[in-house]
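Customer ticket, subject: "Can you confirm the structure for MarR family transcriptional regulator?"

Message body: Hello, I'm evaluating your service for our small team and ran a test protein. I'd like someone to confirm that this is what the system normally returns, since I don't have a reference to compare against.
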Amino acid sequence: MLRNSSDAGALSPGSASALATLARSGPMRLGDLASTERVSAPTMSRIVTGLEKLGYLARAADPEDGRAQLLSATPSAQNLVSGLTSARIQRFAAAMDRLDREQKDVLTTALATIIEELDR
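Agent reply: Thanks for trying us out. I re-ran your input and got the following:
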């Protein structure tokens, strides 16, 4: 969602993806975030440390297990993700507007085929 966006500033693609996941999915444990992002726990730990230093991530005790911590996107991170998502949607809409009817039909057919394959 945030990848390759200049507005994401110092965020690596992995950091941007993890931040977007937290913003979208809500608080989660580090291991669950690592699993969702398909990276190792040590890799996610480094990502989380960086996001925390930037003020984009907060930690809180897990109410179900006091030994564990829940990670969540801070309000500034939520604003960043929301703004970048809106900008990306606007760029996508502008690109779609430049397609003619035939190109849109081809794209619609291709996407329907991909969705069918993913649902199998």
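A couple of notes from the result: The first helix runs from residue 13 to 25. Confidence is low (pLDDT under 50) at residues 1-7. Feel free to reply with more questions.
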